[in-house]
Amino acid sequence: xxxxxxxxxxxxxxxxxxxxxxxxxxxxxxxxxxxxxxxxxxxxxxxxxxxxxxxxxxxxxxxxxxxxxxxxxxxxxxxxxxxxxxxxxxxxxxxxxxxxxxxxxxxxxxxxxxxxxxxxxxxxxxxxxxxxxxxxxxxxxxxxxxxxxxxxxxxxxxxxxxxxxxxxxxxxxxxxxxxxxxxxxxxxxxxxxxxxxxxxxxxxxxxxxxxxxxxxxxxxxxxxxxxxxxxxxxxxxxxxxxxxxxxxxxxxxxxxxxxxxxxxxxxxxxxxxxxxxxxxxxxxxxxxxxxxxxxxxxxxxxxxxxxxxxxxxxxxxxxxxxxxxxxxxxxxxxxxxxxxxxxxxxxxxxxxxxxxxxxxxxxxxxxxxxxxxxxxxxxxxxxxxxxxxxxxxxxxxxxxxxxxxxxxxxxxxxxxxxxxxxxxx
Length: 425
Prior knowledge:
By secondary structure, the chain is of the alpha/beta class. Helix content is about 40%, strand content about 15%.
């Protein structure tokens, strides 16, 4: 029996041209849902002249790629730059726009809120943001099911951006905030078992694991070596792809480099991305001459080439929640060295497809890199194992599970309505 197509309202705190793993994942999710014939109302952040010009000029997939779908409706909510990161958006207060009115017009079967903590204002610890849980007022009034998808470790972000001293002061109230926030939604989904465990300890309510964070394994593939950005460079290459921000811990890669170069003199570290720490990273890298390349942003086939070209993908961030770039590297046949973080143990099998290093331990991280580059047999084995280790997280597989969950939630909501005699307004 053919399932009835759903009317899905999807709020997101991040979307193209704002470049993050979240915005890329949301776009892929919306496109997949549209391809299945679902009606999607995408409510996304507005780009305006308050942001740096290069933000709006990014050649990344976005609305232009999906606007031809007749089952798509969109709304760009008003924004201003995030107080601590001027290239990312925060929604204006609900006095400036009404999520309830938008939903009243669309009448969704289910509401999905991606990166709900940012929409509320937790990224800035309530200095900015919408000011209340998005979509919940309409959901409560009409009985429409509403779920949130967690992408970011907001607790670690608060620690990074406000400092450890401030964090120690507010630490006792964080479980209260997390409980209150998560209790606003019918279900809160996490793509990582370890992240789920961590937030349950913070009294996160109605929390479940769901592997909704996939990647396109046909797009990210070892054959992309044909797009090698530096085809005549035979040096062993370490690659990082991500935002150049404090919470990504990119500075540690500069600390690690000379330790590796002492054993592997021709090693080449390539840092791909942009962010608030860009100037600092470039200045620190200058003393290592051609050994470190700060590439800047990369898109399209060039980026695919970088993932396939690298000998090892390196990620020193301790804030990751099932990191997309880690998976893209593995799908491209590139071994991974990451630090122990809430999700990395679910991506890295030590000795099989990479290694896990201790957080903020440059010596341990460097030794793990040297162990691979100094052992051709081990490197070849890890390269062979990398892609099969992540193939279960292919985008289509993850989205089928997500779609099944949406149907399950909607059907469960209808049964509750019938049993209680509730009538939607």
